[in-house]
Amino acid sequence: MKTLEIIDLHVTVEGKEILKGVNLVVNTGEIHAIMGPNGTGKSTLSQTIMGHPAYEITQGKIILDGQDLAEMSVDERARAGLFLAMQYPAEIQGITNFEFMRSAVNARRADDDQVNLMDFIKELDEKREFLSMSNEMANRYLNEGFSGGEKKRNEILQMMMIHPNIAILDEIDSGLDIDALKVVSKGVNSMRSDDFATLMITHYQRLLDYIVPDFVHVMMGGKVVKTGGPELAKRLEGEGYRALRDELGLDIALTDEDADLMV
Predict the structure, then answer these.
(1) For 3-90+163-261, which CATH superfamily applies?
(2) 3-state secondary structure of 13
(3) Are strands 223-228 and 166-170 parallel, antiparallel or unpaired?
(4) Phi and psi (nearest 5°) for 251?
(5) Alpha-carbon gap, residue 204 to 208, rounded angstroms
(6) Are 221 and 42 in contact (CB under 8 A)?
(7) Does residue 168 sit in helix, strand or coil?
(8) pTM reported for the whole predicted model
(9) What one-character DSSP code corresponds to residue 65?
(10) Is the distance from CB of 225 to CB of 22 less than 8 angstroms?
(11) Average pLDDT by stretches of 10, the chain with 263 residues
């Protein structure tokens, strides 16, 4: 079992404090969802876990199996089993999907245990078909010319090929129609095991209809203010964030959209 532990995490971006004391524990075998209004720090949390240099930890720690992530580079975090499916995947010209994924898979293996080419092609074809992706996508440059839905499927394909222990999915449902959402959810659900955990960041209950979480965490004002099961997301869908804010007695400003729009 691997454990990701976030302890009293404070993070600033360009001198502004965004995270103000996040505490969270994620173990393999678990599915976690983080919800919350815009600007509360959900994506900041994901970027900080993976080591984006623009995000400065001013207090607290992120521990992966006893090791402080502050001591690890981005590539070391990936080799240790972390994976981030980004909200806005970058387009990279000159590197094909095939080359990128094979390099990523081999980066987590010893030099004398690199993936066999034919085995890799077989697995890639199986998982590509599972996600209803075309054969030619393997030879396309990474995300170049991809639609929003294709980019999100490609992130899930990468996750399925790399086999991380803890995957952070930053609004993987954003911009997807219902058919694409079902496919992406099918890919995430196929990874469920005692050796895998997911931390999903989302605004919408609809994702959690297809990927049912073990834990739902609500972030407001830069910290986790409430944790529950799937029923917590259902409650938010019906009541919005304002009711929860008032129940907890939090002095946090919410726009009408953030307070009420949960569908």
Answers:
(1) P-loop containing nucleotide triphosphate hydrolases (3.40.50.300)
(2) strand
(3) unpaired
(4) -95, 75
(5) 8
(6) no
(7) strand
(8) 0.91
(9) T
(10) no
(11) 96 94 97 92 94 95 94 92 89 90 90 91 94 88 86 93 95 88 94 96 89 96 95 89 88 66 42
